[in-house]
Design a protein that fits this description.
2 copies of one chain form a homodimer.
Chain A lengths: L9 H10 L3 E5 L14 E7 L2 E6 L5 E7 L4 E3 L10 E5 L3 E7 L14 H26 L4 H16 L3 E3 L4 H8 L3 H13 L3 E4 L2 E4 L2
Antiparallel strand pairs in A: 1-7, 2-5, 2-7, 3-4, 3-6, 8-10, 9-10
Helix pairs in contact in A: 2-3
The structure holds a DNA duplex (30 and 30 nucleotides).
Chain lengths: 209, 209
DNA sequence: TAGCAAATGTTGCATTTGCAACATTTTACA
DNA sequence: TGTAAAATGTTGCAAATGCAACATTTGCTA
């Protein structure tokens, strides 16, 4: 995953952050950081920790929209923040640096040496996010649990270049990512094994075709 | 929707396009434009016409991943283009300008007056795409057709700031967007009407709560 | 390391859904 | 403007799935 400050030395990072009017906040585990959010558009970079965007139903049903790990970023431009159903929860103690969106093109910063790297990193990160979401949409549009699982397994296999891989989350989280009932998913996984389509060993999966 | 060349005058657009090594191609209706795609990463801008990204199953089931209208853009960085299951079909006669991704930060172009506008437009478009996809993911993760419909209706109402709105596509296309069976969706819509939750008049929907 | 919480596995059952087949209406365009 | 294609509406039925309830295993931490 690309870091927003990749290929930029410490000195220039400090300079860019200054021009970007960056401010850094630290949150404890389990708080909703969107509750006291700045005015105006911003970009948030996760220095340490991780967060999760969660959508909650009128029924209390929760679905994870996105997991953002250490080094990741998110922005007010990419989330319907004013949607009261969406919250952004820290999964652990988390330090976040906020950047004002309008400042990314101010006069000072575009004269900075590493500015082009910064912009290219930002564009790359956004592109990767679109790509990731396209992958998830392609999976979610499959009608059956079986097809969702197979599409997910195929996308993992494609990404790793290997028909054997370890899924990077628990089965409980996978069910949430695929938006299916966990127990029904377990059932379908055993059918896939019975039919000789996959082999499993814990979270290690092998596609057999 | 933001256009990649918004706030840039004709002269500078020509200059930027030259530095970007832009090439323009025109396609007839109904062809897969990814079949003969350039080497390397690129950004494609739709000058006239529109395209649709479609994923096709081993069963032949098709699902629309994204509709891109006139003025829209897409890129090799945001689509798993090497995935043989995804195709990009022109919905009508379509003219597309291709830009080489690496050239968006070449030495010539960053000296151009309107470069900052160009970059800001690009970032805005990518952010909007992420945001749109987050909305769709939030809808697709709902378990029932009823909840998918309601989430979609709410997101439309939110966006328009009005509980009455006209859906911007056919019901057939909506079923595809929600990834549900069209006839089952029609059935669910009449249940929603019976239950007094919505009112409809053709594609005009009113949320009654 | 004991104990508790989370993850995983299993199954019956009611509900939801896709699918198919068909009638009717609307739209596009030759 | 006539006609074919697309969109819309309806319904029976079988398949898929969510849900609930429970047993078992794993992992964390006090």
């Amino acid at each position: 995953m690309v870091n927003l400050f990749e290929n930029i030395n410490e000195q220039n990072i400090r300079k860019i952050k200054r021009f970007l009017m960056a401010s850094t906040l630290t949150y404890p585990k389990g708080v909703n950081i969107l509750s006291n959010v700045n005015q105006g558009d911003f970009i948030a970079i996760i220095d340490h920790g991780s967060v999760q965007f969660i959508s909650t139903d009128y029924d209390g049903n929760k679905s994870i929209i996105e997991d953002i790990p250490e080094g990741g970023m998110f922005g007010s431009l990419t989330f319907p923040i004013n949607n009261e159903e969406v919250s952004c929860i820290t999964k652990e103690i988390t330090q976040i640096t906020y950047i004002e969106y309008d400042s990314i093109t101010n006069d000072e910063i575009i004269k900075t040496d590493s500015y082009i790297f910064f912009i290219k990193n930002l564009i790359k990160i956004l592109s990767d996010q679109v790509s990731e979401k396209n992958t998830r949409i392609e999976i979610l549009t499959k009608k059956t649990t079986r097809d969702k699982l197979l599409e997910y397994f195929k996308s993992e296999a494609r990404e790793r270049g290997n028909k054997t891989f370890t899924i990077p989350m628990t089965f409980t989280e996978l069910a949430s990512y695929l938006s299916v009932d966990r127990s029904a998913m377990t059932r379908e996984i055993s059918y896939l094994k019975d039919d000789g389509i996959i082999k499993t060993n814990g979270r290690r999966i092998t596609l057999l075709y």
